[in-house]
Amino acid sequence: MGDRLRRVLEQQARKAGREYARSKRAYREGREWGENHAGDFDLPTDGEDRARIVCRRHAEKRRVAVNADGEPACFESGHPDCEGCAEDVREGRVQTW
What's the per-residue H, E or C state across 49-96? Predict the structure, then answer.
């Protein structure tokens, strides 16, 4: 097997692994989150009632469910950007779009 073919196969395998991890995370989050409380925090929402916020951690626009504690579905406990985002959601000063 040539080097180029091996690299292509490795890249595709990594890509498939990342996609699998994303799908698994989305499935888990969907089961855990259940009820969406974006409306409780007066956040702008999309057609599926997900909050439209700007992620501090990745500096990107996101559409996410928000739990009753004001934590977006992408929230990672212990990460300073995520902790600050959840605090901003609860206090009504999170950046939205």
Answer: CCEEEEECCCCEEEEECECCCCCECCCCCCCHHHHHHHHHHHHCCCCE
CB 57 within 8 A of CB 72: no
* DSSP reduced 3-state for 42: coil
CA distances (Å), origin 32, targets 13, 22, 65, 67, 94: 29, 15, 11, 10, 23
pTM of the model: 0.61
pLDDT the model gives residue 77: 87
Q: 50 near 35, Cβ under 8 Å?
A: no
Q: Whose CA is closest to 97, among 34, 50, 27?
A: 50
71 exposure class (CB count in 10 Å sphere: 0-12, 13-18, 19+): buried
